[in-house]
Amino acid sequence: MASDGIVERTLGELARLVGGELQGDSELRVSGVAGLEEAQINQLSFVVGPKYLPQAHASAAGALIVPPKLRDIDKPLIITDNPYLAFAKILSFFTPKPRPPLGVSKKAHIGAEVKLGDSVSIQPNVYVGDSTVLGDRVSLHGGVYIGSEVYIGHDTTLYPNVTILDRCIIGDRVTIHSGTVVGSDGFGFAQDGNSYFKIPQVGIVQIDDDVEIGANCTIDRATMGKTWIQRGVKIDNLVQIAHNVVVGEDGIIVAQVGISGSTKVGKNVILAGQVGVTGHLEIGDNVRVGAQSGIAKSIPPGQTVSGSPAISHRDWLKNCQILSRLPELRKKILNLEKRLAAIEEATDS
User: Fold this and answer.
1) What is the separation of C-alpha 298 from the centre of its chain, rounded to a whole number of angstroms?
2) Statement: residue 94 has pLDDT above 60
3) What angle do CA 96, 99, 102 make, to 5 degrees?
4) Residue 68, number of CB atoms within 10 A of its CB
5) Catalytic residue of the set 57, 109, 141, 243
6) In 10 A of CB 66, how many CB atoms?
7) Whether the Cβ atoms of residue 44 and residue 57 lie closer than 8 Å to each other
8) How far apart are CA 346 and CA 197, in angstroms?
9) Which of 66, 2, 73, 64 is nearest to 39 (CA)?
10) Which of 10, 156, 173, 190 shows the smallest number of beta carbons within 10 Å?
11) Among 134, 132, 150, residue whose Cα is nearest residue 102
């Protein structure tokens, strides 16, 4: 550690941390990480591909993380197949999450028969309902509302103003960001003439281990049974997940996605920004859906689709090329029609 309190590590230590190959001075000391343009001589940056070579050569960074094909850069290097992942691990190493103060604030409400694990942090203005269970090292930031009979696993963090309603289940190492609501009523109504009768929403939401949910998301409780977010799913901000939806393991759901009720999303699926999915569909494992796409029918495993309604991504790209040429094509068709009319007129005469 440097004398001024700044944490330093040698390049050799960092290479071992990420399992990378070291090329250069193993004793070079690094005090942080930064982007190529911002990095200083005592900092580490990363390059993911050849198109960033000009910035890499111009960068003041003391060392770089690069893929094997860029090992010829004239700087000390950590060489790894996944530079972005290595960069993320080193960044996490230099910037550990601050731990909130342990204990239960006197300004928090703790209901009857609540079970608290070891080393919990419950900050002011938190509400915890009756018969709820909180695991070890759970952190509840100010303004969090937890209903009754909720289960929250170990090492889970809920940021300010998160709401978890009655009987929902949250796993271990889950992170939920500010303003998200888990367990609000699903949108269920039965038509009664010209009016609508509310269908009771008596199910729950279950969120498995290692899930992260962004800010201002809504995940509705099931009509019956459960809405289920499986292990390792990562959800961006402003996402709506309706009642009885299942999202398979290690999925990525980007901002402003909306998934309608009873849809099943497979494992390792990516839904890009503003994708809309209608209800009662099945999206297979390893599907990729492009931004702003509309999914109106089920998608087999392994497909990459785009557009609204969604089609093969390759076909969608071809369609986009055609769309950009429509004014030109219209002009050509009008000219052809005029020429054809002139030929027909000359033939008739």
Assistant:
1) 22
2) yes
3) 165
4) 10
5) 243
6) 27
7) no
8) 70
9) 64
10) 190
11) 134
Cα distance between residue 206 and residue 203, in whole Å: 10
159 against 315, higher pLDDT: 159
Token pair, residue 243, equals: 């009642």
Distance between CA atoms of residues 116 and 105, nearest Å: 13
Whole-angstrom distance, CA of residue 166 vs CA of residue 174:
18
What gap in Å lies between CA 286 and CA 266, rounded to an integer? 7
Q: Is the pTM of this model over 0.85?
A: yes
**Bridge-based pairing state of the strands 109-110 and 127-128:** parallel
Structure tokens at 15: 């290479």
Q: What is the spatial distance between Cα 216 and Cα 253, in angstroms, rounded to a whole number?
A: 14
Judged against a pLDDT cut of 60, whether residue 123 lies above it is answered with yes
Structure tokens of 90?
């080193």
Say how many Å lie between the first and final Cα of the chain, rounded. Answer: 97
Helices (H) and strands (E) in the chain, counts: 5, 40
* 280 given a catalytic annotation: no
Q: What is the pLDDT of residue 347?
A: 83
Give Cα separations from 28 to 10, 62, 81, 326 (angstroms).
5, 8, 22, 58
- DSSP for 168-217 reads -EE-TT-EE-TT-EEEEPP--EEEETTEEEEPP---EEEE-TT-EE-TT-
With CA atoms as reference, report the closest residue to 206 among 232, 227, 223: 227
Q: 323 phi and psi, to 5 degrees?
A: -60, -40
- Residue with the larger pLDDT of the pair 173 and 338: 173
CA distance 21 to 127: 50
Dump pLDDT digits (tens) for 50-80.
Answer: 999 999 999 999 999 999 999 999 999 999 9
Find, among 70, 71, 75, 72, the residue nearest to 58 by Cα: 75
Collapsing DSSP states into helix, strand and coil, what is residue 306?
strand
Residue whose C-alpha is closest to residue 160's, from 184, 136, 172, 143: 143
pLDDT in tens, 165-176: 999 999 999 999
Please give the structure tokens belonging to residue 118: 């070891």
